[in-house]
Amino acid sequence: MATTAPTFLEKPADPARSHSGRSGPSALSRFARRAVFIIGGIVGVALIYTAVKAMGHATGGTWPLTSLPLPFSTDDVTMPPVMDIVLRFTQPQRTGDPKNLTMWILEAMLFTFREAFVGFIIGIIIGMAIALIMLRTRWLERGVMPWVIVSQTVPLIALAPVVVAFGNQIKVPLFSWQQWMSVALIATYLTFFPVAVNGLRGLKSPTPLALDFMRTNAASGNATLWKLRMPAAVPYLIPALKLAATASVVGAIVGEISAGVRGGLGRLLIDYSAQYLSDPSRLYCVVIGAALLGVLFVALINVTDLLLMRNRPREAR
Q1: What angle do CA 207, 236, 33 make, to 5 degrees?
Q2: Both 140 and 273 in a single domain?
Q3: Is residue 14 part of a domain?
Q4: Could you tell me which of 147, 194, 219, 272 has the fewest CB atoms within 10 Å of its CB?
């Protein structure tokens, strides 16, 4: 009599998600709907920003119908008009500069992305290695996990100068340590934590029935890891990778500021902050560029998610 193989993977946290091969909206329609939501959100933020600025101007800096002052100024220095910020992207960084501000920001985004991406990859490797170590036995998990948590309580602004100073002391024959490598290590520090925690949770997610099935088929530990535990961990790792991607961008920018590395968004933030009173819109443009870099990084993770999950069977509902 024919038997049915047991379902190896637990139901992921988001059973409503659909991938190619499943019924539901196509990938193109999902992308279009998400794009509409993103554009709508940007427009909504711009409208709220403009409304708050107009309210402060109309009431003289107080809440409507009260004499209570607003907790911030709404003048053109603190809150430049939205159109001023938009138009600033098309203008030169400085008078006489042949490149407009958009080109400067795009080049800085690429520079910061390199540091963040290297830190992201190293963080994934370290995070999964820690997860595999904690998976071995319960006592290893109890011994290692507290240190993983404690590592995230150290302020990044205090750790960054230490990493930079340590990196500057590295002397290896035929190898020259670059400052951007120290920045990548700072990004790694923020990246490995969510990967380690969610990776362990995903590796432990297969049901006892699935593990028993592998054992009865004389599967080795490595076979169980790569054919059962790793696929089961994918739905748990994708959210962790999204957190790690945005954290790596933050770590790279903070690292650039601490290390004084030129060429990235961190250096532009320092330079434009020093000249904020004379050109406030320019600093807003860099902040928008940093946010956009994080969004694009997460979009890459979403594409990876679609590729990894396209052949995954429908979960039981």
Answers
A1: 125
A2: yes
A3: no
A4: 147
Average pLDDT over residues 51-72: 87
In sequence order, the 6+-apart residues with CB closer than 8 A to the CB of 238 are 301, 304, 305, 308
What pTM does this model have? Answer: 0.79
- How many CB atoms neighbour CB 316 within 10 A? 8
- Alpha-carbon distance 206 to 173, whole Å? 47
- Residue 40 and residue 112 in one domain: no
Helices (H), the chain: 27-59, 82-88, 101-136, 138-151, 156-168, 179-203, 208-216, 221-224, 230-259, 265-274, 280-309
Instruction: Count CB atoms within 10 A of the CB of residue 53.
Output: 19
Same domain, 98 and 62: no
Domain total of the chain: 2
Q: Which domain holds residue 48?
A: 27-79
- 5 pLDDT higher than 60: no
Write out the two tokens for 191. 């990246």
Q: Which two tokens stand for residue 36?
A: 């509409």
Q: For residue 92, give the 3-state DSSP assignment.
A: strand
Same domain, 193 and 105: yes
Instruction: Provide the residue count of the chain.
Output: 317
Judge contact between 171 and 105, C-beta under 8 A. Answer: no
Q: What CATH number is attached to the domain comprising 94? A: 1.10.3720.10
Q: How far apart are CA 8 and CA 290, in angstroms?
A: 41
H/E run at residue 264? none
Residue 63 has a CB neighbour count (10 Å cut-off) of 13
Reported as a single tens digit per residue, the pLDDT across 205-249 is 888 888 888 888 888 888 888 888 888 888 899 999 999 999 999
